[in-house]
Amino acid sequence: MIGGPVSPTLGNIYFALVGLCVGSFLNVCISRWPVGLSVVKPRSRCPKCERPISAAENIPVLSWIFLRGKCRGCGLPISMEYPAVELLVGAVWLWAAFHYGANFTGMRVAAFASLLIGIAITDARYYVIPDGYTITGLIWTLVTAIAGMFVFRVSPFAGPYDALVGACVGAGAISIVGWLGEAALKKEAMGFGDVTLMAFVGAALGPGRTLLTIFIGAGLGAAVFLLVVLPVTKFRGRDNPEGGTMPLVPFGVFLAPAAFFALLWGNDMIGWYMKFTGL
Fold it and tell me: Taking a C-beta distance cutoff of 8 angstroms, is the pair 260, 204 a contact?
């Protein structure tokens, strides 16, 4: 029927295609924002020979397959990370459409997850969280929180008031954690990117789940540090004194998945904890 509702299947396909395109743009953000470049100009180009990439060569995933993972100009390999990010983000958007529907709420969940993916990858690679992710995410979250008042759908996101309080709580709490870490380690323990990240996350989750995010992220970070980073550092330091230097651990890598977990299951976890403790 002309003008009738879109079928769930078509909606899911549409979300998946949008996700692939978002993943393609996310690759640009990951490679350019940390080095201070614009994500708008110049147009996409080969990172090796800087040859501009045509529109036909810039189709998410498919172009990488058709080019056999090599630049058409210089013939050098194109990293697997590019199609991997596109597929991951596309899968997240498809999952959001299945779970929440191809609607406003599904779009908010998918966009939130996409920004967290970009933040985690960028922080892991460059040890920095660009404001492009966090400020964009904060503004987007506050605007959609207001818009959500008129959509009348059940949503996992915080309402406008809790979004404002959550942003303040997130930024304030992580600042205190960073200050305590700096006092204990006698050096900078946390960058400003973590503060803006938690303001963005706080606006999405509200105050309670924001504190839960910091708790889960700290637990994940501590586990990885104790089980992976510390043993590797000690092993390298046995035969090479210079190789035993303690590396930095980017906190955003752990806060990002913790925030998504808190979005989906944070209320259940807080409810279980309150019931268990009798609060």
Answer: no
Q: Whole-angstrom Cα distance, residue 206 to residue 169? A: 8
* DSSP code of residue 271: H
Phi, psi angle pair for 70, to nearest 5°: -135, 150
**d(C-alpha 255, C-alpha 272), whole Å:** 22
- Partner residues linked to 52 by β-bridges: 45
Question: In degrees rounded to 5, what are phi and psi of residue 77?
Answer: -65, 145
Per residue in 233-279, pLDDT (tens digit) is: 766 665 555 555 666 778 999 999 999 999 999 999 999 988 888 87
DSSP letter for 226, please: I
Structure tokens of 114? 């996409």
Give the Cα separation of 194 and 129 in Å (integer). 7
Which residues on adjacent β-strands are paired with residue 77?
70
What is the value of pTM for the model shown? 0.90
